[in-house]
């Protein structure tokens, strides 16, 4: 089942994001076959990163929650909020 994981960074935590980015990317690589769309949310100027959006395949909600809580960004306390929602891909087919 697909899940959208929408994460918003805490204000003024850009250094935590930068410091943990290599570990975060390596963590994502462990789930390479499960990604539908994954990347950072950007500030209005299109430059600064303010969160993450991941649409991924998981066996169930518990697996999605486990993935999210073990992300190095989450473990470092980067996120102000994390929402996990079942998702249905329509386009592209």
What does this structure look like?
This protein is α+β, with helices and mostly antiparallel strands. The chain has a single domain (2-87), classed as Dimeric alpha+beta barrel (Alpha-Beta Plaits). The chain is 32% helix and 37% strand. It is built from three helices and four strands; from the N terminus they run E-H-E-E-H-H-E. Strands 2-3-1-4 form a four-stranded antiparallel beta sheet, with helices on one face. The radius of gyration is 13 Å and the shape is globular. The mean pLDDT is 97.
Order of helices and strands: EHEEHHE
Measured distance between first and last alpha carbons:
16 Å
Would you count the extended β strands for me? 4
- Supply Rg: 13 Å
Structural class: alpha+beta
Here the CATH topology equals Alpha-Beta Plaits
Mean pLDDT, rounded to whole units?
97
Q: Uncertain segments of ≥5 residues (pLDDT<50)?
A: none
CATH superfamily: Dimeric alpha+beta barrel
Architecture per CATH nomenclature, i.e. the level-2 architecture: 2-Layer Sandwich
């Amino acid at each position: 089942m697909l899940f959208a994981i929408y994460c918003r960074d805490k204000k003024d935590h850009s250094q935590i994001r930068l410091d943990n980015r290599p570990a975060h990317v390596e963590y994502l690589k462990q789930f390479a076959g499960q990604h539908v769309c994954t990347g950072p949310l950007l500030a209005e100027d299109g430059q600064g990163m303010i969160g993450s959006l991941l649409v991924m395949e998981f066996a169930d909600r518990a697996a999605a929650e486990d993935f999210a809580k073990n992300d190095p960004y989450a473990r470092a306390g980067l996120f102000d909020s994390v929402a996990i929602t079942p998702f249905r891909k329509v386009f592209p087919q």
